[in-house]
Structure formats: structure tokens, C-alpha cells
Amino acid sequence: MKTLGVLLCLVFLSAAVPVPAEPIPVPAESPAHVFYVSIARVKWNEEITRLDVSVRIFTDDLEEAIVADGGPRLRLWTDQAHADRDRHVSEYLASRLAFRVNGVDRQLTYAGMEDALDATACLVQITGVDRVESIEVENRILIEMFDTQANVMRFEIGGEKKYVNLSKKTVTGTVRFGS
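The chain above was modelled as a monomer; its predicted structure follows.
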């Protein structure tokens, strides 16, 4: 009896909703998403004296940025992925992301990447960090690609959580801990 009621509702609803004579036009080139953001998580691993950095970037935007820099189309997360994709992602990150810890410029070590639905989680590390009093970050990821690009930085250091929001207007930020 429930099935019959559901079918009758569907019949009446379909009769009540007019069907357009012609298909509704769809813009030929619509953006994949309407906002442009990367989200970085910086976490201090005190036991092994290392900062672990995970930067989530929309995969299509990351690939377009690498192509705009003269690199190949990477086709990340497909069966046709570029064989040297890690090198290209690593070079892109190194050219757009910089850290100064306790007033000292620090080298990033690329640790890989992971598929994160529509995004790519790029993993980098900064080793030999035995204490963290301040972190200055410069983040230019996708800044040249999109005027509205936002780069959100989240820091977790010794139980403290702090955030820095960066954009085309402000590409550097500093956070202090333990005070």
C-alpha cells in the first residue's frame, strides 16, 4: 500500500511540474569551484624535533599552477599520472613556501603527497626543531593564479593553536608561542 501511495505522489508531482520545452542553457566554461584556498597545518613533533606541514590544495589548481610555471600536466590521481610528479610538486612548494623558525631560515624536506578528494595534501617537514618560540611563514601558493586566493595557516605547537590568514595583499605572517 505504501508503494502505491509513493507512486501516486510521483505521478501527481511529475504532472504538476512543467518540463521546459528547451533545455536550460549551461555556461560553456564554468569554474570548478568559486573560492580559492589552501589550508596548511603545521604541527610540532617535540619527540623527534620536527615540524610536520600538510598543505591541502585543490588538485586542479595545483596542476594549473605547475603548467603555468612551465611544467608538464601531471594528471594527479589518475592512471596517467606523470612519472616525475613528486619532483614537480616539490619544486612548486619550495618556490612558494618558506619558514623561519626562531629567527632562522629553515629548509623544507618534501615527504610526499596524498589524495584528499578534490584536493591534494602535500607533505613537507622541517627537521631539527628542538624548540619553537616563533614561526614566520611566507606562503605564495597560487597567489599569482587567483586574485582571491586565501592561504590559511594553522599552527599546533606545544598545545597552543594559532592561525594566520594570508592572501595576495599579505603573503607573510608570524606567530609566537609560549608567551
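Strands lie at 37-45, 50-58, 97-101, 104-106, 109-116, 119-127, 134-139, 150-157, 160-167, 172-176.
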